[in-house]
Every structure is written in C-alpha cells, then in structure tokens.
Design goal:
The complex is a heterotetramer, with 2 copies of chain A (about 150 residues) and 2 copies of chain B (about 425 residues).
Chain A lengths: L10 H8 L12 E7 L4 E10 L2 E10 L2 H14 L7 H14 L25 H15 L4 E3 L2
Parallel strand pairs in A: 1-4
Antiparallel strand pairs in A: 1-2, 2-3
Chain B lengths: L10 H6 L7 E2 L2 E2 L1 E2 L10 H13 L10 H20 L8 E4 L2 H14 L7 E5 L8 H10 L2 E5 L9 H8 L4 E7 L11 H10 L3 E5 L3 H4 L4 H4 L3 E5 L10 E5 L1 H6 L10 E4 L4 E3 L13 H17 L1 H20 L4 E3 L9 E6 L4 H10 L2 E2 L1 E3 L4 H7 L4 E5 L6 H17 L2
Helix pairs in contact in B: 2-11, 3-11, 4-5, 12-15
Classes of the chains: A alpha+beta (about 150), B alpha/beta (about 425).
The structure holds pyridoxal-5'-phosphate (2 copies).
One pyridoxal-5'-phosphate (PLP) sits at the interface of chains B and C.
Chain lengths: ~150, ~425, ~425, ~150
C-alpha cells in the first residue's frame, strides 16, 4: 500500500529515526540551541562540542517525527570532524536537497543524508529535515532558540 | 424556508455540490478529513462570489450609483442572514471581521482594554485554540488584567466546578471559552457557562469557530454576550468572520481600528464614530466574501441543522467504533457531547508520519498541535493526528481512514 | 515576462477581460467611473479564485497533506509576486492585511505604540484619506504621540517647505502620507518625502492605495520604510491588502493581533512569536483572496505600467480638457503630476444630485467627501463628485461623462 | 435625457430644494439638533419652538443636496401645529415612504411630502430624505447630534 513511501521511509532512515545513535545530551558540550517547528510542535535541542575549530561531537534531544529524528541523527554523524566554518554550507546543501530532491553538488560528508532527499515530494515535511540543522547553526552562533520557518 | 419540503439528507447529493470532492490526490480519490481546519466550498458559494464579481460589484456604503447600491444591499443582506442563523436580536449586532481571530482581538482590545479595568481577570479554559488564548495574554501584558485558566476533566470536558472556583472572588470580567474544541470535539454546555459567568458578574464569550459548523447556535438561548465564528469553516469564503455581541456592549466599546466607514465626522482635532456595527468595520470590507458567506449560510440552512447533526452523530459513532478497534490507537477526549473531530495518537508512529502515509492514499488529515499547544501539554502528548468531518463526509471515508490506519500500524510495526 | 512580446495597449481587449463591463444599468451601458473606490475584476482574477475553490483548497501552513501543501504554495507565491511588483528586497517583508486600513492600523499599533515614545510626533498631510488619519488620531489619544499636519498648496500639492518646517525639532518619528490623493489625483514625490523624513531622523510611510494602481512602485527607489496598498483597487479581490516594511522594522515591532499562525511556542504563561511575516498574520488568512491578488498582479504586469500610465495620461489630458470646458464646473486640484482621479463641483448643482443624474444614464461616479473630510474643508467645499479611471476606461466614456454633465448643468439651470 | 428623474426632481421639490422657506434659524427656538450623514458629508441642523405640546415653528440650516434641503423644508411645513408626540409616527411614515415609494396610510399632514417618495428608486438617497427627520426627533428628545444611519 505504501510502496511509493519506501524511499522516504527506507530501512536506513527508519533505523535512525527509531533508534538514533546520537539521541542524547553528550556528557560534555560547549554550545546548545533549541529548534522549534511552531506549525506542528516538533522540537529539537542540539548539543555540540568543538575542538580546534572543528565539530568534535554533536548530540540531540528531540520530540518529533521519525524524519526529524533521523535527520538529526544523520546530521550528528555527518558533521563530526567538520570545520565549524563549513557547517552553514552543509546546512544549505541539505535544505536545497530537501526542497528539490537533488544533491549532485553535495559535500561528500552528506552521503548518508541523501536518502532524506525523498522528502521533497512532501513539502510540508521539508522542515522536519532542516530543523536540526537550524538548531545546530543556532548553537554554533550562540543563539538559544530558532525555528524552522 | 419550509421545513416540510426539506429534502432528506442525501450525502451524495451534497457531495455533488462540492466540485473539489471529485479531485484525485496522488492518483487516489480525495478523502478530505481536514474540515475542522477549513471546509470546502459548495457551488452556490462559489457562484455567488463569481456572480457578484461578474455582474454587480462596486464599493459599498459610499456610492450613489446603482452598482454600489446593489452591492451594499447584498453586503448588508449578509448581516440579516447571519443574525437569523445565530438568532441574534438585531442585525446591527453583527460585526464582520477577517476571521474569528480578528474578532477575538477586537474584543480583547475594545472590551478588554476599553472597558475592563486592570486588576480584573479573564477566564479561559485549558482547551482553547491559540486564537482564544494569545489575545488575552497580550491583554494581560498590556493592560494588567489577570489571565485564569479553567481546568478540563480527564474526559476532556470543561470542569464546571473548577470554573466556578475561579469566579468566586468576583474579579472576573469575562469568561471566554470555546463552544466546541477543535481537538477533542467536546461541545461545551454554553448556556450553563453563561449562567455561571453572569451569576458572578462576568460576561460570557464563546468561540464558535467549530460549534457553528456542527450545531444550531442560538445566542439568546445560550445567554451569550459575545459569540464568534469564521466563514471558511462553515463552507464559506476565507477572509471573513463574524463577531456578534449584545448591542449595549458594542455601543459602549471604543472602536478597534480607525479609517473610512467607521467614522461619524472627522477633523484633525477630533473624530466621532459611526453607529454600530459600522464603528467596528474600518475600511473597505470583505465585500465579495460577505456575499459568499450569505450563500453559505443559506446552504446550511437549506440542509438544516437537524439533518446535519444527525448525519454527524452517525459518522461520529462509526468513527469512534472503528478507531477504538485499532490496537495502540488512542482517541483524545471522551466527552459525552462531542462533534465530528477525532484526534488520536498511535503507539510507535508519530503523528506527522501517520499524516504523510495517509496523504499518500489521498486521505487528508492534520497533524501537529492543532493551534492548541497548552492543551496538548495537558493531555501529555506532543502532537496528534486529527480527522474531522464535514457535511460531505461519508461512512465509506471513515472506513477508508480506519482501514488505512491499520496498514499504517503495520508499516510502523 | 518578455517585454518584447508585450502586446500594444488595446483597451477593447482589456475590456473584454472584465465581464461586468458589458452590463447595463438602468437600461444604459455601464460607464464605470468609480474605480478609485474599488476597481472591477478581470476574468483571470475570478478564474484563479474559482479554480482554487474548485480544485485546490485547504487551510495553509498547518496541513501535512497535498491540498494544504499546494494551497500554501499558492498563498505564499503571492508574496513573491507582490515583492516583485513593488521591488521589495525580500518576500518576508510582505505582510497581508485585510486592506490598507488594517495595514495602517497595524503600523499605528506595532510601530506607533510598540516603538515610538510619547512626546514623539507623527506627520500626515492635509490630503489624507481617513484611513491614514484616524489611526494616528487614535494613537495620539492612546499613546501621547503628537499629530502634525503638513499643509498642501492651493494647487493641491504637498507643501514641501511646510513639511520640512514640521520636522525641524526632530521630534517626528514618522511621516505618513498618501502616495497619490484619492480626491485630487495628486501624485506625491515620494522619494523626496522619504529623503526629507530621513534627514530629520523620521521614518516614511506611504499610503499607496491609489498610487499602486496607476504608477509603477519601487519601494527601494523611493527609500520608503512602510508602503501599503489594497488589492480591491488593483483589480484584485476584496478582503486583502498589503503592508510592506523594512525587515528590521518588522522584526523590531511587536505583533498586532494574537492567535494561530503568528506564534512560535505557546504556554499559558508566555508565548513567543513566529518569524516575519507570519508574526503579523494571526489566524486563517484570506487564502482565496491572496490567490486572486497574485492573478491581479500578474494581470497588470502583463499589460505593463508603461502602457497603463500612457493610457492614463491620454485619458487625463482629455478629461481635464473636456471638464474645463463645462461652465461652472470646478476641478479640485491642479497638480503637475496627477493620475486619473477628477473631483469636481458644479455651480447650482449639489454633488449628490449630479451623481444621481449621471447614474440614471448608467454613469457611475462617487459623490460626498471621499473619506477625506478635512481635505474637503481645506478646499472649502462640502462635497464633490468624483470620476476616476481604470485600465478599462475609454475616451468615449470620458466624452459620455462630459456630455452628460453638460445636460446636468442645463437640468439644474 | 433625464425624463425619468422628473418625478424626483419635480418643480415642487426643486423649488423647496433651492429656495426653502424655512431654511434659517428661527429668531426664537427652544430645541435644536444636528444630523450628519457620515457617508457623504451632508449636515442639517434643525431648530424647533414648542408651544402647548405642539410644534409651533421649525426651521433648519443645511449643507446638503437638493433632496435633503427639500425634505427639510417640507418637513418644517408639515410638522407645524402637530402634537410633539405625533412626530415620531410622522417620521416613521416618511422613512417607510422613502424606502418603498408607497404611502397609502400616511398622515394627511404629509401630503406635500409625497413627491419625495420617488427617492425609493435610489436607495442611497433615502437618507437624504430621512436625515432632517432624524435631526428633528433628536432635537425633541434633547440630543445634540444624530446620524442618518
Ligand atoms: C488614498 C487611500 N487610502 C486608503 C484607502 C483605504 O483603502 P481600504 O478601504 O481598502 O482600506 C483608500 C480607499 O478607500 C484610498 O483611496
Ligand atoms: C476553536 C477554534 N477557534 C478559533 C479558530 C481560528 O479561526 P480563524 O483562523 O478563522 O481565525 C479555529 C480554527 O482555526 C478554531 O478551531
């Protein structure tokens, strides 16, 4: 019945969505920010530890759908070791990917994030993918809250 | 309208009046179960708007020419239709606003700031839509009025004893509650609430955004002081809603917005205000939308609320039976008196994911906090999916929802 | 849009797009010269609204289903169209209100009460519509802001020296003037006004209700801080208008109304606001109307403002020539830069009586004070008749007006 | 050209509209009130002198159209000698007449007012007829201002 949804809800994504590896507050972190999706009530809080200008570790706490949680988990994976200054570019690429479904020019670091591009067929779900990235950027910029609008 | 000649309720005939219902979505026939957010429009509403724009349109109230006179008659005629619909004592008490939200903001400004005194209190309930919460918060912060929240019971009904307790000190100037919850479907005993409010010297406001769609409303029988609804949920156009209030309240209240049409005379030093209802309608109104609203009112009147509530009761019984058969599914609220709004959660599946799967099958439901974040907190859920019915909803659509939810459950198992 | 393929301006082709123009009134073909009050709607606007209601409608922003997503795209698409029309730097700066009037009240509340301090002043002009006067009076009375009135010259132009004199003490926080007078047709040199306001530390607001219909508007070239217009005069639907303001102003301003869609998170204790523009759009917006507005914007863009202003210049020259030939007729205002709005008085005939006689011949004009009572006083008249043109107005209609006015004169001789 | 308007703008009405007999403030009056038509800017001020429970004299000052002035003038004529308590009934009859064009049950005192019934074809002009009556009622009830809404 939901065959055409197997892209979006692939085994990969569902695993990240249900049993995220990074779905907790790290023992040590130096920045954190919340992201809210006011239209639906989803909330993600991202925690990040930096080391020598790079993201050393990221984790999150979320109340949200599988897509949001999966995106947060894949993000935490993808940004580990990335230069802090590079995160915005990655975030922009994810946003474009979620909107258009395409990611030809995406950074190698985003390889595992690609399956989420299936979300582009469901515009109202695009925010589920981008919300954790907004929260991460906010944390890195010293803000406390953000929204996914 | 002659009750004797009213045709029996025939949902297929009604569906034929709604062009959108024959659309397909993602290759599947549209099953529109999001009417509580906004309802679809029947042909008579669309036609009335088109006819106005094609044959009889000009600005109202100001023109001394034929088109303006006819348009003014049509626009003002809607006040009569709405007054009849809610049994208002006078057409002059019908104020048009953009939607319910603007109407409540108008009351918060013109009654709240204009008449209430700092130190008085407004009581709302735990199950309000943000539209009947945020304006009172803003009033509280700007005007020093206290905001109190009447509890609901675990079955999702207004806790009348809890409400009465909040009124004891007689500081409450206004009790503002929903007439029907957009999350729980609960119909609030409005007449009892109004009587209680009056007993303690408070006025009673009802947010009828949902109730006016599902129940006959009689503001005099309720004993209401303010009543609001929004056209787009009543099968009418967007961009127009209704505030009804007792004449003496409207007359005492200062205007909300300033501009053309709401004035008596204007000089740079001082202006005087027009009579009600015009005092509260600044600027060019939603003319075409008012004309559409009249058609919507006539449309539901022709079907009749007896038939509408009977149809809805059948749908509701069926929906509750089918939904409660789905393992892991929890319907929010269990009020005695409830309308066709069903919010639910499902173990192991998030509301958004449910909504997306249903959408893939052409079934439109809403998911999220339904503009009632504090209520969700009270119910201990982050978000829920919500299916809601309209006059065009069929038993088969309820079955499609339930059948698909069973598959959703498997998918997420 | 490709400028090269733009068809030449053909008024008969344009007229064919407006179904109402083939109507008769009192047995005579309709000559609609009341477009400044509200314009007629072309078929693409009507069709866009009908198509939305028939094939693609649901509430916006909230739904996770196909109909809601498509409707949201359409609704939000209007922001892009409007941003392009007035050359706004960002679509996020486009706020939808019910009409110009609500937009100005929003600014008076959120900027006036929210940002300005008691003791500061607002400057308007002698030729404002009540919509750009009464809200500032209400702000004055509620918030202790002074209201100053910049004079106009005897030719009906803004007296720039007089304006500058009012700014000298640097107490003025906002200069709020019309971009084009709805009585005199005067087009105000907006860029000069904005520069002057900024020189003295004030913001500049322009009421573009009339100007946006007759002239290309570029808010960046003007250097405006706030700009407003109303869809129903721009061949669009009733029930929707536009407030544009600079991002940093919108971000600093507190919201106007509270409710759904304008919030970030809500608890009973405290709410946070959504990002702009949503912060200023509480409740279900005028969805169908926004969709109609987009069609209206595209319609005028396809014709092009070069063609529109050229057509209007021809009509204006002709109208002024014909009207000035009528003995005893006085056209109000004689600005250098003026659009297709002609207010006049006639010796021995009152404006209402003139309007009724014209109406009998199918010619729709307005009579009264045109929501600009103080201006009428300044001009020394009680009321006037007003003929105003649209893109569909023909030379023959101007002739019909002038010919009939000659007969009116005889009638009242 | 305006033949169908000869009813409304009859010689009678036009005479009252252009050279009203009562279009001035009486030397002596004991009550007065203004009436405004906010939609168009018309204004009538009515002055009245009472004697022994009857209207002894009425006069007015107006800025308004011919119909308003004619209505005011005909009103002043019609109410002279009428019991004060009867004025509301007369006013109601005039209002009904202006709206419907019919006045079968009208009071004899309103005979000369009848030609104004032609206004019923022009709904937006009905207020022109009723405004002076509103002002008169306001004066008799001790109000200072009224509108024709
Ligand atoms: C110059 C001007 N400003 C403001 C308005 C008010 O527009 P709206 O009634 O659509 O708010 C109008 C038209 O009525 C106008 O001509
Ligand atoms: C109970 C209730 N109140 C208020 C509203 C607000 O209505 P609107 O958005 O039309 O102002 C809604 C619907 O959104 C509602 O369901």
């Amino acid at each position: 019945m939901f065959d055409d949804l197997r892209d979006l809800y692939s085994a990969e994504i569902r695993a990240h969505g249900r049993t995220p590896a990074h779905g907790q507050r790290p023992a040590v972190f130096d920045a954190s920010a919340k992201g809210d999706n006011p239209m639906c009530g989803d909330r993600v809080q991202v925690f990040v530890r930096r080391d020598d200008g790079r993201v050393a570790e990221a984790g999150f706490e979320a109340r949200g759908c599988e897509i949001t949680v999966a995106s947060a988990d894949l993000m935490c994976e993808a940004v580990r070791g990335q230069p802090v200054g590079h995160i915005r570019a990655l975030s922009d690429q994810v946003a474009a990917m979620a909107r258009t479904g395409r990611c030809e020019a995406c950074d190698e670091a985003l390889r595992d994030v690609h399956p989420l591009s299936a979300v582009h067929e469901y515009p109202s779900r695009v925010k589920c993918v981008t919300l954790p990235w907004h929260a991460l950027l906010a944390a890195l910029h010293g803000e406390k809250e953000t929204t996914s609008e | 309208m002659n009750v004797m000649t009213k045709p029996v309720f025939d949902v297929e005939r009604i569906r034929a009046d709604f062009p959108i219902l024959s659309q397909t979505v993602r290759g599947k026939p549209l099953v529109f179960l999001d009417s509580a957010a906004s309802a679809q429009k029947p042909r008579p509403v669309i036609d009335a708007m088109v006819q106005a724009m094609e044959t009889q349109y000009a600005n109202v109230h100001r023109g001394l020419h034929w088109m303006s006179e006819r348009t003014t008659d049509a626009y003002e005629g809607t006040r009569d239709a709405v007054a009849r619909l809610i049994n208002a004592p006078s057409r002059d008490e019908i104020v048009f606003a953009k939607n319910t939200t603007e109407g409540i903001n108008l009351v918060a400004h013109s009654y709240g700031r204009g008449i209430m005194k700092p130190g008085q209190a407004v009581v709302i309930s735990e199950m309000e839509h943000h539209a009947n919460l945020v304006p009172w918060q803003m009033l509280r912060d700007a005007h020093g009025v206290e905001l109190r929240v009447a509890p609901i019971t675990d079955s999702g009904e207004l806790d009348m004893a809890g409400l009465e307790a909040l009124l004891q000190d007689r500081k409450v100037g206004l009790v503002a509650v929903t007439h029907m919850s957009n999350v729980l479907g609960t119909v609030v005993p409005a007449a009892r609430v109004a009587a209680l409010a009056h007993e303690y010297g408070a006025k009673a406001l009802f947010d009828g955004s949902q109730a006016a769609v599902h129940r006959p409303v009689d503001v005099q029988a309720i004993g209401a002081d303010f009543y609001l609804f929004t056209a787009h949920k009543l099968y009418g156009p967007t961009g127009i809603g209704v505030l009804w209030a007792r004449r003496e309240l409207l007359e005492a209240m200062p205007p909300f917005m300033g501009g053309g049409d709401m004035i008596g005379t204007v000089s740079f030093e001082r202006s005087t205000w027009a009579e009600i209802p015009h005092k509260f309608e600044a600027g060019t109104p939603a003319i075409i939308e008012a004309i559409g609203l009249k058609a919507a009112v006539e449309y539901v009147e022709a079907i009749g609320f007896d038939a509408i509530t009977a149809h809805e009761a059948r749908l509701t019984d069926h929906a509750l039976a089918r939904l409660s058969d789905i393992p892991g599914l929890r319907v929010l609220g269990a009020a005695q008196d409830r309308g066709g709004v069903f919010s639910f959660t499902m173990e192991g599946a998030h509301a958004h994911d449910i909504a997306t799967l249903l959408d893939r099958q052409g079934i439109a439901v809403r998911a999220g906090n339904h503009c009632a974040e504090p209520l969700m907190r009270r119910l201990g859920v982050d978000s829920s999916a919500r299916a809601s019915t309209g006059i065009y909803t069929t038993m088969a659509e309820i079955d499609a929802l339930a059948d698909t939810l069973l598959r959703v459950r498997e998918f997420f198992a």
